[in-house]
Design brief:
single chain, mainly alpha, 3 helices
Length: 136
């Protein structure tokens, strides 16, 4: 079997496994964060969490598939490891950027929600105050 094909198979196995692991970790640990962002609405948090996971899979697995082709044929074990290190390293960087992008956007949404909650008075107004008369 050609070493380039071996590199493809190993790259796909590692990249898909890493993508699934990161997506599951983000989904499991991000649920509480989403619940806070969405002000305790558990059903909405679960729905958004699921949509984010699906989008994460689509973007990252699409990138993995597009990045599969090797620039040069792999001829020996050293070339195999070099090709894999570059490809897996780029996939890890893309996964990290995707994760940071998700956290950044969700944090912006959370901050906006906190600001809106702070602007609502804790008690409704009791009535109107009279105007002050000058000199009294």
């Amino acid at each position: 079997m050609d070493l380039t094909v071996v590199a493809y198979v190993v790259y796909l196995l590692i990249s898909v496994a890493l993508t699934v692991w990161v997506a599951r970790t983000l989904s499991r640990n991000g649920r509480l964060f989403l619940s806070d962002v969405l002000q305790g609405d558990e059903k909405l948090a679960d729905a958004v969490n699921h949509l984010l996971v699906v989008g994460f899979y689509l973007v990252n697995l699409g990138f993995v598939a597009l990045y599969l082709k090797a620039a040069e044929a792999v001829e020996n074990a050293r070339g195999l490891f070099e090709a894999l290190s570059v490809k897996v390293g780029v996939v890890l960087l893309v996964l990290g950027v995707m994760h940071l992008g998700n956290v950044y956007v969700l944090n912006k949404i959370r901050r906006r929600g906190l600001m809106e909650r702070d602007q609502t008075p804790p008690v409704p107004p009791q009535g109107w105050t009279g105007t002050a008369v000058a000199g009294s």
